[in-house]
Amino acid sequence: MNNLINRISNAFKRQKQPSVNYTYVDRYRLLKYVDQLRSSDKSSMIPAATIEANANGPAANARSLKPYTYSEQIAFLTKKLKENDQLIEERWKGNIDPKSFQTFRMETCLATRLAIMDASSNNKLIIWVSRYNPKGHDGIPSILLLLEDVQNNDQSAHYFSLYNLLLGLLNNSLPKLIYPVYRSNLKDFHNDPLALFQTMSAELVKNPIGFFKNIGAEVLDEQCIQTLYRVRDACLADSSVNISTAVSIGYPIYIMEASDESLNAEKDLYENKDATAVMSDHEHEAHLEAM
């Protein structure tokens, strides 16, 4: 009987998953999404052997276990989102086709990680900033802002065709980030809060790294990352420089380090520095011709 048990156990053993080091995982959202999808998909169950004793002798039965590694949960979630046409594998580029208004997106990009102190809890808030400037290539500039450990209630992504109050959208996603703006501009805020929001929103679009540094953020590092994220808000933001910029604000489900080679020749098109991104006249003309 022991040989039988061993053969059954070996038959149902979990295949060993390759080890993956994740920079960040939103364990709460990941488990919640996987559980929701698994409730209607029995094929997702991972079998494991159990041995039951009854009047007729031992009987082997398969019971179901939750995927217990991040790699398994992420692989399952990604697979189901693709099957359900709920995942787009690139950043939003400002197009207004309703098919592009998906909540979940996945991409590989170059991003800078920043940390800013939350005075109310004395904890650090982590923000990832990825700014892409196509220059003479097809498309418009885009910015991705990923906010770690934000447990707001999930809702469908909001896409705006034009929005000049980006700071307001950021406030919807993580109000604690906006407190330093109030503190450092109290006089302007009391005199004309709308004008302050417009000015600061334009600064955020033109130079996101500089914007966060000005409100106390510490620049940690720049990495090539792969990430699956949930879009909270996205808009074509007016920065008063040449053309609008497609900005996406999201909550990362996971972030893992990727190789620079995965960006191919586009690595030089990322501008994650403390500098205002403005196209030269030549780049602007080339961009308009490519559109």
Describe the protein.
By secondary structure, the protein is of the alpha/beta class. The protein contains 9 helices and 10 strands. The strands form 2 sheets. The protein has a 5-stranded mixed barrel, surrounded by 5 helices. Strands 2-3 form a two-stranded antiparallel sheet. The longest helix is centred in the first third of the chain and has 14 residues, at 70-83.
Termini separation comes to: 71 Å
Q: Considering DSSP H and I runs of 4 or more, what fraction of the residues is helical?
A: 25-40%
What is the mean predicted local confidence, pLDDT? Answer: 78
SSE succession: HEHEEHEEEEEHHHHHEEH
Total helical segments: 9
How many β-strands, per DSSP?
A: 10
**Which stretches of 5+ consecutive residues score pLDDT under 50?**
45-64, 279-284
Question: Radius of gyration over alpha carbons?
Answer: 23 Å
Structural class: alpha/beta
* Beta-strand percent range: 25-35%
- How many strands, which pairing sense, and closed or not: the largest β-sheet? 5 strands, mixed, barrel
Please give the order of strands in the largest beta sheet: 5-6-7-10-9
Envelope shape: globular
Question: Which key features would you list for this structure?
Answer:
291 residues; alpha/beta; five-stranded mixed barrel; two-stranded antiparallel sheet; 9 helices; 10 strands; 30% helix; 32% strand; globular
